[in-house]
Specification:
alpha/beta, five-stranded parallel sheet, RNA-binding, 47% helix, Gyrase A, domain 2, single chain, 15 strands, Isoleucyl-tRNA Synthetase, Domain 1, four-stranded antiparallel sheet
Length: 592
RNA sequence: GCACCCGUAGCUCAGCUGGAUAGAGCGCUGCCCUCCGAAGGCAGAGGUCACGCGUUCGAAUCGCGUCGGGUGCACCA
């Protein structure tokens, strides 16, 4: 059967396509004098109606334009309906309610998404939205003083999935980790490591209050013994502190890198805070701000309400962040003349800007909420408002086991390590579950449920759909059908007529659009939810075959129909694989 | 006291940046296997979208205010 002309080559975002059609016809109405010229179409939307009975798609054009055009919504809708109905893609256009225009599309249009999925494979849904713009996603950035724990895991997964999403949406993405190796916490690390070094030399370690007690420093102590023998024993701090800072930071970063690797996260850049000191970088960033008149010597007003204990007015070097949306100006130098932590942070972001990024994203823990405005102010000031900085805060992870709060009784503390979780449930499950909540909502992670093979476990449910398709493909081959993607891409999809099949195709058609929304809003969790819904529709269709045997995918005596149905479900598997791929989860070929 | 986040079904949460009768999972009720994976599916009950104003053709969604919960709040990173 020859394909209608309008299917030959086109952008596969059906929603965008129909919107274009609507806009074109609005212009026709303008040239015909029905509508006045100069209307703003910005608010015209083409969306799937909430209730499928209303049609395949709906547009609000008439209602949005009624006021500026000084016309009744229904008059516009009626005129537009006549025009749209002339297009071969539109089976019917009906005006409803206050002026909604409900469109019924040629079903072939929906099923064309199947062909698209099969021909694009893993790239199904890939978008050019980002137009190759350089975007920097900074995430994890945990102090190099120990291994990653569950809280960090969420940020790591979120950042990596967001980066994958942006890559898929056509951005040029850099994954980056900022190593806080310049502050006092590294001194603490060095001193803690020194005690472990003493321990390795057979002495009793004195891990006083304020030092890091964790076991993970024992190997550092041993490595130090390896390198220095006993030459540092009883030496003053001035002799070894600088070396141990460097040495133990290095080892901690190796530890962190290996933790990230367990999760499947790989960074493109590790940026050292230390590299900002003594290199003129901080000075350069502040000079930039100073040239804009944003640096001054002054005294901050006391906090409103209760004064903190011991508050006193001090003259400091301040950044006029209030000019860029912050609540108060922020100190960049302490009263003793040293930098505050904020100064290197400014310099770091200045460096990102200098490296030519068009957009910046910081993924932080929710406890950094107070930091958002000042950092945005800094980036706004440094880039003259040209480079947007989005800061995504990840809320806490609450760990459970069988519905009960779970705490690990580590000798050193009660926190649970990333390594412990990933080794128990695997990276795929960990990643997916971490993305089943919006980043700014707290997340419950149940270790027992994560391992469960049932629909209570969303990871399993999605994986199961993928595996089931695979299983059907195998059966089809046994039945003598050809099911390679090329054969399937040429299937006669007009044989798909059942409402459930159409519904599944419509769900598939949402994918390109959903992906762009997720990328635009920096919300990878939308993908996880979509995949769950898609899997759900697939499971329902599969089940239809149990109730109505003629709805089974494989019909032994109807090869063409079987091929069409297999093409449809193979497209589902392609979408699932593509979506999981973005999230960094491996699609399962079979469940065990 | 100030700032940010949150408040949607008994519980845990979505809600496509303003659309029509607000959705899903769990839990509860009742159904569906002579097998393409029941590791599943179908149906039912269950909601003043915290509250009040406002913006407009139209608000869970946007603005302001109130209440409730979380987080962070001067030279610490």
């Amino acid at each position: 059967m020859p394909r209608p002309f309008y299917l030959e080559s086109r952008e596969m975002n059906l929603f965008a396509e129909i919107k274009t059609l609507v806009l074109e016809n609005l212009n026709v109405l303008v040239t015909e004098g029905v509508l006045p010229a100069g209307l703003n179409y910005a608010n015209v939307a083409v969306e799937p109606p909430r209730d499928a009975l209303h049609g395949d798609m709906a547009t609000n054009a008439a209602m949005v334009l009624a006021k500026p055009a000084k016309m009744k919504p229904r008059d516009i809708a009626d005129a537009l309906a006549v025009k749209l109905a002339e297009d071969p893609r539109i089976l019917s256009a009906d005006v409803a309610g206050p002026g909604f225009l409900n469109l019924r599309l040629d079903p072939v249009l929906w099923f064309d998404i199947v062909t698209d999925a099969l021909s694009k494979g893993a790239d199904f849904g890939r978008s050019n939205m980002g137009e190759g713009r350089k975007i920097n996603v900074e995430f994890v950035s945990v102090n190099p003083t120990g291994p990653l724990h569950v809280g960090h895991t969420r940020g790591a997964v979120f950042g990596d999935a967001l980066a994958g999403l942006l890559d898929f949406a056509g951005y040029n993405v850099t994954r980056e980790y900022y190593i806080n190796d310049g502050g006092a916490q590294v001194d603490v690390l060095a001193r803690s490591a020194y005690e472990r070094y003493r321990e390795a030399n057979g002495l009793e370690p004195e891990i006083v209050e304020g030092l890091y007690p964790g076991d993970y420093l024992i190997p550092v102590g041993e490595a130090l013994k390896e390198k220095y023998g006993d030459s540092l024993i009883d030496q003053p701090e001035s002799v070894w502190l600088e070396d141990l800072r460097e040495f133990s930071t290095e080892m901690m970063m190796d530890l962190i890198r290996s933790d990230l690797k367990l999760l499947g996260v790989t960074m493109d850049v590790f940026f050292s805070e230390k590299s900002l000191y003594g290199t003129g970088k901080i000075e350069a960033a502040l000079a930039n701000l100073d040239a804009k008149g944003l640096i001054y010597e002054g005294v901050l007003p006391p906090p409103k309400g209760k004064l903190p204990d011991g508050w006193e007015a001090r003259e400091q070097t301040l950044f006029k962040s209030t000019e860029h949306g912050d609540d108060v100006d922020r100190p960049i130098k302490k009263s003793d003349g040293g930098w505050t932590y904020f100064a290197p942070d400014i310099a770091y972001h200045y460096d990102k800007i200098e490296r030519g990024f068009d957009e910046l994203i910081d993924v932080l823990g929710a406890d950094h909420g107070g930091y958002v405005k000042r950092m945005k102010a800094a980036v706004s000031a440094l880039s003259d408002g040209k480079i947007p900085l989005d800061i995504k805060l990840c809320q806490l992870v609450r760990l459970y086991k069988n519905g009960k709060p779970f705490k690990m009784s580590k000798r050193a503390g009660t926190f649970v390590l990333l390594r412990d979780v990933v080794e128990q449930v695997g990276p795929d499950v960990t990643r997916f579950i971490m993305l089943t909540r919006k980043n700014d909502a707290p997340l419950d992670f149940d270790l027992a449920k994560a391992l469960e093979q049932s629909k209570d476990n969303p990871v399993f449910y999605v994986q199961y759909a993928h595996a089931r398709v695979n299983s059907v493909l195998k059966k089809a081959v046994e039945a003598g059908l050809k099911v390679d993607d090329e054969t399937l891409a040429n299937a006669d999809l007009t044989l798909l007529a059942h409402p459930a099949e159409l519904g599944l195709a419509q769900k598939l058609a949402e994918w390109p659009r959903l992906l762009e929304t997720a990328a635009k809003t920096h919300e990878p969790h939308r993908i996880a939810f979509y995949l769950y819904e898609l899997a759900s529709e697939f499971h329902a269709l599969q089940h239809l075959g149990k109730i109505e045997p003629e709805m089974r995918f494989i019909q032994p005596d109807k090869r063409a129909q079987s091929t069409a149905r297999i093409a449809l479900i193979r497209a589902v598997a392609v979408a699932i694989a593509a979506g999981l791929g973005i999230l960094g989860v491996t699609p399962a070929k079979e469940m065990r």
